[in-house]
């Protein structure tokens, strides 16, 4: 019998420290009106703990919602572009933290597209019978790597994590169709020099962030549109069949474009970018977790998701939700509070980068 990858658990983790647009205006040449009118973002979260801690909380919440013993997991995939270290991977830290002693563990870096990529490959692994119970996570601590002197990019991003449990099922649910791709010719329009790409002996603390906004928007629109159309063609469904749109939360204007493309009204489009900014790979699972909590996802709903990220990676997927929209166990674990506000966490990073640029003579 054909197998499907049913979503049986979901969860999220948002750091408690909130950085508002007005906070940013205290050290950047910007304002709440400038940021919100261009992006739709009002605030974002700043984590005082590492990516693996965010991922672990989200994972525990998803496992609670599924009421699944971590020892039953046979695969963990963490989508992230902000790992705590190069080696070992974040997934192995999550595996250790939750006690998933029988799971294979790996990280996937497709930037903001990472979670959909992870869902795409995890679903295929379940369909082939290679795996039966998979934990997929999107987790980012972007605030630690941004150049906080660059207004155009610094205002866009935030920290967070989200997770899902996928289990083999005979029911025709889960990710029914997906298409992932990469526009590699334009990979340099969204990039961050990090890892082994810089001279570690001459590293002065600046990780140069290339962000060509107009070009990114143009290619994102083209890539996501093509992916959505291929998913529709494969499933035989149309925009009339879509109950909800849950897109990557990158920019309110881009979300509005996707909603128009899919002919989904505002009330069926899930938007939370105003609260969290762009959390990269975490935007999709956080949005799904909140949509379930808020009753925006109902049993049997057909949901379209589309993403794009550095690379330029891109993709879309059609998900049919299962019968259950309530967690089997409480899934509201949170990070412990830190002893600093979001602004107190960010200001030292801004000052350090500002001095480094001055030393470079810029």
Unreliable stretches: none
Shape: globular
Just name the CATH architecture.
3-Layer(aba) Sandwich
Order of helices and strands: EEHHEHEHEHEHEEEEHEHHHEEH
Mean pLDDT: 93
Query: Structural class, judged by helices and strands?
Result: alpha/beta
**Count of helical stretches:** 11
- The number of distinct structural domains comes to 1
CATH superfamily: Thiolase/Chalcone synthase
The CATH topology assignment is: Peroxisomal Thiolase, Chain A, domain 1
Distance between the termini: 64 Å
Beta-strand residue fraction: 15-25%
Q: Roughly how much helix do the residues carry, as a percent range?
A: 25-40%
Pfam family, one: ACP_syn_III_C
Enzyme class: transferase
Subunit structure: Homodimer.
Subcellular location: Cytoplasm
Provide a descriptive summary of the structure in words.
The chain has 362 residues and is α/β, with parallel strands linked by helices. The protein has helices at 21-24, 32-39, 51-66, 90-98, 114-128, 151-154, 213-235, 252-261, 273-276, 283-293, 342-360, and strands at residues 4-13, 17-20, 43-46, 75-79, 104-108, 133-141, 159-169, 174-182, 190-192, 209-211, 244-245, 302-309, 313-320. It has a single domain (4-360), classed as Peroxisomal Thiolase, Chain A, domain 1 (3-Layer(aba) Sandwich). The protein is 34% helix and 22% strand. Strands 1-7-6-4-5 form a 5-stranded mixed beta sheet, with helices on both faces. Strands 8-13-12-11 form a 4-stranded mixed beta sheet, sandwiched between helices. A two-stranded antiparallel sheet has the order 2-3. The relative contact order is 0.21. Its EC number is 2.3.1.180. Homodimer.
């Amino acid at each position: 019998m054909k197998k499907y990858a049913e979503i049986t658990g979901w969860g999220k983790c948002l750091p408690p420290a909130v950085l508002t647009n007005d906070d940013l205006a205290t050290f950047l040449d910007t304002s709440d009106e400038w940021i919100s009118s261009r992006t739709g973002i009002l605030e974002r979260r700043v984590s005082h703990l590492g990516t693996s801690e965010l991922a672990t909380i989200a994972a525990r919440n998803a496992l609670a919602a599924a009421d699944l013993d971590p020892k039953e997991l046979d695969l963990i995939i963490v989508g992230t572009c902000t790992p705590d270290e190069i080696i070992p991977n974040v997934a192995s830290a999550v595996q250790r933290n939750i006690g998933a002693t029988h799971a294979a563990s790996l990280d996937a870096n497709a930037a903001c597209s990472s979670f959909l990529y992870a869902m795409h490959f995890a679903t295929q692994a379940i369909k082939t019978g290679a795996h039966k119970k998979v934990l997929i996570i999107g987790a980012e601590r972007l605030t630690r790597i941004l150049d906080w002197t660059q207004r155009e990019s610094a205002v866009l991003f935030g920290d967070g994590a989200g997770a899902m449990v996928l289990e083999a099922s005979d029911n025709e649910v889960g990710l029914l169709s997906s298409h992932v791709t990469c526009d590699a010719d334009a990979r340099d329009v969204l990039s961050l020099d990090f890892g082994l790409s810089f001279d570690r002996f001459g590293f002065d603390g600046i990780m140069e962030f290339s962000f060509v906004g107009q070009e990114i928007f143009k290619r994102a629109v083209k890539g996501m549109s093509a992916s959505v159309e291929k998913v529709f063609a494969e499933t035989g469904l149309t925009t009339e069949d879509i109950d909800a749109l849950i897109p990557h939360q990158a920019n309110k204007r881009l979300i509005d474009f996707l909603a128009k493309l899919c002919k989904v009204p505002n009330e069926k489009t899930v938007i939370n970018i105003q609260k969290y900014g762009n959390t990269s790979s975490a935007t999709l699972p956080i949005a799904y977790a909140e949509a379930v909590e808020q009753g925006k996802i109902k049993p049997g709903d057909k949901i379209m998701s589309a993403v794009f990220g550095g690379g330029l990676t891109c993709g879309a997927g059609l998900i049919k939700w299962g019968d259950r929209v309530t967690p089997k166990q409480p899934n509201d674990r949170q990070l412990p509070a830190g002893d600093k506000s979001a602004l107190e966490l960010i200001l030292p990073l801004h000052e350090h980068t500002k001095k480094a640029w001055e030393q470079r003579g810029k």
